[in-house]
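Researcher: Structure prediction, please.
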Amino acid sequence: MTEDAATVAAGRAKALADPTRLMLATALRDAEGELCVCDLSWVAERSEKLVSHHVRLLATAGLVRSRRDGKMVMYSLTDSGRALVDLVVGQGVAIA
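Model: Predicted structure follows.
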């Protein structure tokens, strides 16, 4: 693994190291389609402002992509984001 590849991988792992971001990424993984900040805010029981901040960090790490739909911005996991979330929390396995 090159140093650049290691830096990217560490940044992605670091993005999921926060419990709120991991919760948001898991919600995106489990969603049937895309979610907006208001949906994620409801799921995570956090303010929309805080959710927006965390989703932006996930997007910067390359784990989340966004798509504008009118005034709404819809979010979904990238393929690498889905793979990393699956590795961190398991595929559909709830952590007790």
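Model: The beta strands are 35-36, 64-69, 72-77.
Researcher: Thanks, that helps.
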